[in-house]
Amino acid sequence: MYEKLEQLISEGDYKEALYEFQEEYQNIGLSSDEDAARLCVLEASIWEALGDGIAEFEAIAKGMSFDQTNYELFYMLGLYYQNFNIDKAYLCHEMALFYCDVDSDREVIASTLQELKKDTRVRVRGVSVMVLSYNDLELLKMCIDSVERSLPKESLEIVVVDNASTEEGVREFLRERADSADYSFKLIENSENMGFPVGCNQGADCCNEDNDIFFLNNDAVLTTNALFWLRMGLYENRNVGACSSLSNSASLQEVAPSLLGEYAGQELDNLWHKKLGATKSFEIFSKYAAVNTIPMYYPYIKRFRLTGFALLVSRDALKVVAPDNKVFDEIFSPGYFEDDDLGMRLATASFEQYLCTNSFIYHNGGSGFEGHNDAMERSRQTFIDKWDFDIWGFCLHWQEACDKIADLYAERKEPLKILDFSCNFGATGSYLKHIFPDVFVAGVCDNSFAAGIAKNIVDDVVYGNLNTSKLPWNDHSFDVVLFEREKVCMVRASQFVKTSGIIIDDREEERD
Fold this sequence. Notes:
Belongs to the glycosyltransferase 2 family. It is a single chain. The protein is α/β, with parallel strands linked by helices. The protein folds into three domains: 1-118, Alpha Horseshoe (Serine Threonine Protein Phosphatase 5, Tetratricopeptide repeat); 127-255 and 299-393, Spore Coat Polysaccharide Biosynthesis Protein SpsA, Chain A, CATH 3.90.550; 399-505, 3-Layer(aba) Sandwich (Rossmann fold). The chain contains 21 helices and 15 strands. The strands form two sheets. Strands 1, 2, 3, 4, 5, 6, 7, 8 and 9 form a nine-stranded mixed sheet that branches. Strands 12-11-10-13-14-15 form a six-stranded mixed sheet. Strand 1 (127-133), helix 8 and strand 2 (156-162) form a beta-alpha-beta unit. It is globular, with a radius of gyration of 25 Å.
């Protein structure tokens, strides 16, 4: 199949090759996923030869939507990244070799990897996957199996801390897997349940000190390439400290059930996965992930905290915020809010945290901590006592304001400049920057702590008295000004909005 197209490419007749590709592409819907991906490989080859990087990238992404394990696509993606992010190039070639089953091609990819390893600019580390285990044997098996399918064994370490599981077969399974693994598999068996923070810290202390650490719940199952795209996020730049995935069940990181109904063949509502069971639910979620786990120009949503069910943290960041391997503050035992606390520590150390929208991990979700029904409220108060604010008041974006900005964006069809007097930690700015990457968001905070967090998320931020401090922007220079009436007066907001702009306040009043 595609012999004529391959011949035209080999002869360097790219104009005719494009015509031939277009003919073949008309029937791509009749092809198998494998053949469709192969056609996209050939398309990417044409654009690479013609020097059109954007078209090449889009062809690779299209191909991965058909076949997520096509090694040629990973190899080409590695070539695409080689000149402007050598770490990402390395990760792509590593996965190309992982998936490749053609001996002659394996030699070429391995040679490319060896050359990259010699390059002193490459800083990619291996990954220690730290799994905290407590019962849920079948989910634990799915979890471990999915990790083993995710990375070459040379780059992988699994560290399991079993928190005194009582379910029959759990410890026997873990011991057998530790004994039979042909890669680094470490098992720690606690005689009592130490809770989440202590157990994770035990595991972190046993992880290879040269590796990044991926904290993964034992009831979380990786879809294909989920960990790869998390690693791509972690090596987006040197300031990234942590990455996490979208899920069916994770605070502020959920894929809406309405988006999954097509793959389930029925409408889904909240907690749908609990009703259908883990096996069926993972199958549905994997189908959705398969068409969305693809290269994107910038798939990251900047956050100041990420949910700890699946959290990849860079070793460089850990050396700063947890030099003693106490990654999670044990005052939050038995659990809850320890991930929020880590997020704040990363943010105050100026590390960026990314929610990767092309990485998907199924999470079955637990029912809390046995014998500690008040754990969430206690840990919430512990967080307030430690940080002097309630994080629940700062995590959500201002949806009504964002909807109005979306309307204005659609009307203007051009980038907007937005000034947010309700910036806080940048939640609204984070949402806007993800939905409209070309908007400019400036924030004003009433204290330096909030400004220090928000500066990792919005384009520009200052702090001071919201009504009287001198601000560094010209009067009447913003298309949109957001503010809360209780904190900012209308005269102040009007000072910075263009005559053609809009003001949005928390009374949902919009004025031209």
